[in-house]
Structure formats: C-alpha cells, structure tokens
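INPUT
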Amino acid sequence: MDSRPVTVVVDAVGGDNAPSAVLAGVSDALAKDSGLRIILTGPAEVIEPFAAQQGDRVQTVACTEVIEMDEHPANAVRNKQDSSIVVGARLVKEGKASAFFSAGNTGAAMAAATLVMGRIKGVQRPAIATVVPTAGPPCVLLDVGANADCKPENLLQFAQMGAAYATVVLGVIGPRVALLNIGEEPTKGSQLAQAAHALMAERLPHFIGNVEGRDVLAGVSDVIVTDGFTGNVALKLLEGASMILLGQVKDAITSTPINTAASAVLKPALNRLRSRLDPDTYGGAPLLGVAGVCIIGHGSSKSTAVASAIAIAAQAGRGGLTEQIAAAVADN
Amino acid sequence: MDSRPVTVVVDAVGGDNAPSAVLAGVSDALAKDSGLRIILTGPAEVIEPFAAQQGDRVQTVACTEVIEMDEHPANAVRNKQDSSIVVGARLVKEGKASAFFSAGNTGAAMAAATLVMGRIKGVQRPAIATVVPTAGPPCVLLDVGANADCKPENLLQFAQMGAAYATVVLGVIGPRVALLNIGEEPTKGSQLAQAAHALMAERLPHFIGNVEGRDVLAGVSDVIVTDGFTGNVALKLLEGASMILLGQVKDAITSTPINTAASAVLKPALNRLRSRLDPDTYGGAPLLGVAGVCIIGHGSSKSTAVASAIAIAAQAGRGGLTEQIAAAVADN
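OUTPUT
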C-alpha cells in the first residue's frame, strides 16, 4: 500500500445521502490509508463537529453556499462561488490538495473542475470515464457522458487519457485500447467511428482495433473508447441490465417454496455478486483532461462508494495522473 | 390463433446451423400453424427430399447459387442472382409469398430485400428492429444496425415503422414511443437526439419523450428509437451482458459443494430464465421499410429461433405490416 502523503478535498454535502454517507466514507478511507489527508468543504455546522473528532488529518474550509442536485450546472457554478463544489475545485487549483471528490450535482462538478482548474494543455475536451467490471480485468470506458457530439480527434485524446488512467489507477502497463464500434473491420461503423479508427491505428501504440457491444464485458481490452452519447447509453444500460437481471434471477430461484429453501443457502454468494456489480462498489468516475484530479460520485453514493472514490482520488493524486495525461496528449 | 392462409419463403441454407436447424424449424412452425404454407429456396438436393416428406404445404424453388456467411453483401447479391436469398426476396416481390425469412448473411439479406423488393413509398431508410424482453411488456428497439449515421427525419420514420410493427406483431394498440437519449429533458443529448426529439414531439401521437439506457429493460415504452450505431451497440451489449451475468450467477451458486447441491434444485427455473433471455427464443429481426415482410435471423439460429421467426413472419404477413407502415409513413 502506497502511504505517501496525499490530500483529497471532499465535498461534504454532495449527493442524496450527504452528509452522513460522505462523512462515514471519509472515516473509512482514513482508516485504510495512513498517508491520506482530507480537506472537507461545506457548511461550517456540518463539517466542523466531524473534523473535531478526527484529529489533524482532517481540515475544513467552510462555505456559505450549497449547489443543489437539480440546479442548472453552469449557472450554479457562476453564481455560487462560495459553494462546496467551487471551493473544492479551487483548493486543487491552488495546490492545497491533489484531488477533488464530489457526489453532488454532476454537471456542476464538471463545470467547476473545467472552469476553475482549467484544461490540461492540449486537451480539447475533458471526458468522463468509468471502470466497468468484466469477465476478465476491469475496463476503463470513456466518454460516458461529457461530450454528446465528438470529432475523431476527441476520441484519440480520450484513448490517450483513458490509457493514462488505466496505468495510474489500475496498474496496467501498456494498456490495450479499443474503439467501440458495430463491426470488427476498420471500415465498419459511423463516419465518426471510421475516421477515429484510422486516426487511432496511426497514433496509438497499443490500439487493438474495434470491439463490439458484446465484447464490453468480455475483458478483451483495458480501455474502450466511444463518444459520450453511446458511452452514456451503454453505461446506463449495463447498470439497468445488472439490476433487472439479478432481480429476475431472484424471482426465478424463489418461485416455489422448495426453490426458496434452496436459494437461502445461496444468498451470501448472490449478495457478493450483486455487490460486485453494484456501481456503488466502484465509487466515482474521473473527469479526465482537467488540470487536477476530479472524481465524481453517483448521486446515490453510499459510504462504501465514497470511501472507494476517495481511495481512487488518492491513488490518482499520488500517481501523478494529471502529469501522465499531459505527457500522453503532448505526444500528438 | 389466426389460421388464415399465409405463405412464407424460407432460405433453407442460411445460417451456421443450416440446413438442419432451418428445416427442423420449418417443421415446428408448420405443426403450430395450420394456415401456414412454406416455399423453400436452396439447392435442389437439400430442399426437395425434405419437401417430399411434408406434403403440399411445402413448395420448393431450387437455386443454383448460395451466398456464404462472409461474402461481401452487395457484391454477392449483384453476382448471385440465382441464390436462395435473392430468389427468396424475388418471390415476395412477385406476390408469391407474403414474407421472407433468412438466417444467412445479414447484409446480403438486407441488400436483397432492399434492391429486389424496393422501399415502401416515402421511406428514406429501412431499419432493423428487434424485440427486447423487459421487466414489463416486450419492447421494439430500432434501428439496431442498418444505418450507422442518421438524420432526425430517419428517426421519425423509424418511430412510425416501429409503432406499426408493435401493433401488428405484438398486438399493442397505440404503442408508446420513446427516443433513446442521455437525459430526460428535451434539450439533452447529441444534436441528432435534440432535433429528433423536437420532430417526434410535433409529429408522433404517442410520443412519451426521452428514455435513458437504464430504462430500456424497464418496460416503460413499447417502442424505443435510436440511430443504428447506438442501437447496435446497445443490442450487442445486452446480449453479452445477459450471458455473462448468468454465467457469473452460475459460478456464484456453484462455488461450494453445499451451494452446488442447493443450486441443483434451482436448475429448471434458471434454465427457463436463460431461455427467456436467449436471443434464439425471439427468432428474427425485421427489416422495416422494404416493400415486403423480411425477417432476418441470427447466424447462430437453432430450430426454435427459426420456428419463432417464421411465426413472426406469418403474423406480419397476415397483419399487413407493409401496408400499415406505408400508411404510417404517408401521414408525414
């Protein structure tokens, strides 16, 4: 375990279960990582009593404003400069912390990170990545929603940024990168996919070509690149499918009294599987391409999701994710 | 059960398991539907011995050519005019049958249907639809691969064609139609999705707005419309996810000897679920917008898939799918 000092700013009031789930997640993360330091942003009355119990590894920066989950992102960031999200991004920008985590308004966290931290030099469009559990090693999928319309050059950069993330956070050396497409041959797919394939084949050292929808969970690639429209549909489809399929399995195995008795034995194993597939287990999604580590949590994050997102933020900070991305993109 | 006479042309040599799976599927379909008649296309030595055993409900049109699974679709259709696929499409065009089914080269079947049958008047781009099992009623998803790049007007027509299919084949009166998008609000999504939303809101009587990836399996809509790139990724992702998740459930419930004993009791229920999720159970995908019913099967179709695809072809023929689509599209 890497125990070098690292500081993560945490938005104490972001998410549907804040502040209790966030503060519980902070406690868990601190217990697991002796080098971790936390700066909490949020209203003084929320963060100061908690920090007082935690000792000197938790600092606070009190804010007078809160961006609600349903506020218009850009307007909220513009008008609420003393909110937990904007102040959190600013602390990273000022070098007081290596990474920022929020499970609050996703659009506002993205807007704050982009506006306050700025983009890494050379990055055209930041992208949101997510780590998908597969039948093999986990896979970084991006963009999952930051850019609904993309150009081929954007997809090349997503590939470079996703590969840097796979190396720093998942520890993959020379990650295999694939393009999500609707056929295996280079000439298949939309105009965007065809042009992106040509560009990636020319410029990416570990490009393995196209993968199809059915390959996403097969573990054939360490990074899968797509536009933010397709990626967002794919991610939400997977989340929905996992929960509905497991629900149907549960219905099937409790359809008779004998089945129910038999399935009681299997409950622990099925619960472990459910938790492996639960997005909460994986915590947050990084916004890649901004000049500072920014990890965004699901609004529904519980304490385990918060703790794992903070651990990822710490690892990305220690591993120099921002510098790795800057170097990858500068190769162009 | 509708027992009016209807004739379906079946490509006897299409698919990885042809001709045995196709011929077995034909037998099953005939046994279940007393009004059904079949015309088989394929090499004489394959189809004639089978037809001789079946009596006068099975006719044959022998062909001298076969389009292989991996041939270039347009070239194959152009060069092999006496193939089972081209001849099958021609029999529908000539009014000798109401519908055509092939589990062969998908691109060639699409090309033959489009070139030989032609498009329905007013239809810009034919689309491939598929019926997705959901937590509620089944849902027609289209386009799942015919058109990687689309215009908003294409998506409007996909909606009209998908609604006609839901009515004729699934029996849904006034089907609810949704647009697959990455947010619920009309202003969310790609430029294509935003423009399509505006057009559909203006022109479709049963438009229910945007749905997200997580809603696809929730059963909230009878028809879900998207471009052929997103739809193909979504369909293949679902197929892959179902099989991988069920595999993981199997691993989980057989991870210890006690679990294995308990899970033996559950095997029949889980097998039923697996078969419900297996694409084979649903048979074929219709190519909507061509001037004749054309149902395309998975290359891997087994006899159950062939039988259910033939049943769907018969229903679409009896229900006047082509006329219903012509009427829906003419409303523009």
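end of record. Chain A touches chain B through 57 residues (CB under 8 Å).
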